[in-house]
Automatic annotation (TrEMBL):
SUPFAM superfamilies: Glycerol-3-phosphate (1)-acyltransferase. Residues 95-203 form the Phospholipid/glycerol acyltransferase domain. InterPro entries: Plipid/glycerol_acylTrfase. The chain crosses the membrane at residues 15-46, 180-200. Coiled coil: none annotated. Keywords: Acyltransferase, Membrane, Transferase, Transmembrane, Transmembrane helix. Pathway: Lipid metabolism. It comes from Umboniibacter marinipuniceus. One of its GO terms (molecular function) is 1-acylglycerol-3-phosphate O-acyltransferase activity. SMART domains: PlsC. GO terms for biological process: phosphatidic acid biosynthetic process. This is 1-acyl-sn-glycerol-3-phosphate acyltransferase. It comes from the Bacteria.
């Protein structure tokens, strides 16, 4: 059980939190530089593009795993996983993995445990001078509205890859009700695969749209990543594709709304 602190203890924890978090961001930046050099080296020594993508994803996953381990050991963030062994068995078959998106570090926590994950990423990340090289080296799929995007997702799943998608499109806002786009539903229906459901809950808002890292907590923020099992698409088979995507998205919205994103760590 983690208890909130008071008085001088709170101040000491907040000073520690600032130092630990700042070191985490610095480590992330240095890691991004080292990983960029790594993927550039892979271009020289590995000619096969599929192998380069696999090695690039593995390197990113290991880098994120180190960062997650640092946050846990430093005590700046409490991260836990539930039913993860079941998910690791299911992802070997490929498919679509969807999750809610309460925090900036969601993708870091997920990829740290999924070494060969593919992702749908914002177009601005694809062209970002800081992480764009890594995103492209991993073969991630830009969410740029191209007609070919759905087919690229279908082909990736056919190769046995797991594609991580946040149906919300961006981080959850505490200022308005959750909404989901139909993109993930369309991809799953087109590929004809069950969807792997993940919920991310937190003890307190941290690195959200409204709460940034300098909003100092009085106790380590906690995250619980729970695998909820496979969402079968058979009940939607008799519906036209557009109607099936609408219904599936509505059912997912109810699923995530009912569970909420609050975690009682006690």
């Amino acid at each position: 059980m983690t208890k909130a602190l008071n008085g001088p203890s709170t101040f000491r924890y907040q000073v520690f939190f600032v130092v630990a978090t700042a070191l985490g961001f610095v480590s992330f930046g240095l890691g991004a530089i080292l990983l960029s050099l790594w993927v550039l080296l892979l271009r020289v020594v590995i000619r096969n593009p599929d192998r380069r993508v696999r090695w690039s994803r593995y390197a990113i996953s290991r880098g994120f795993a180190v960062l997650v381990r640092y946050m846990q050991l430093a005590g700046s963030v409490d991260i836990r996983w539930k039913n993860w062994s079941s998910m690791e068995a299911d992802i070997t078959q490929g498919g679509v993995l969807i999750a809610n998106h309460p925090s900036l570090i969601d993708v870091v926590m997920m990829i740290a445990r999924i070494p060969n994950a593919n992702c749908i990423v914002k177009k601005k990340l694809w062209n970002n001078p800081f992480v764009g090289l890594l995103v492209r080296a991993c073969g991630f799929i830009p969410n740029d509205g191209r007609p070919e995007m759905l087919d690229e997702c279908r082909q990736a799943i056919a190769r046995g890859e797991v594609i991580i998608i946040y149906p919300e499109g961006s981080r959850t806002s505490s200022m308005k009700a959750m909404t989901l786009s139909r993109g993930a539903a369309n991809i799953a229906i087109l590929a004809g695969v069950p969807v792997l459901m993940l919920t991310i809950q937190r003890t307190t808002p941290f690195l959200t749209k409204e709460v940034h890292w300098n909003n100092l907590p009085t106790v380590a923020p906690g995250f619980l990543l729970s695998y909820e099992g496979r969402w079968e698409l058979a009940p939607y088979d008799d519906l036209p594709r557009a109607k099936a995507a609408r219904q599936l998205t509505a059912d997912w919205l109810k699923f995530y709304t009912d569970r909420g994103d609050k975690w009682d760590r006690n």
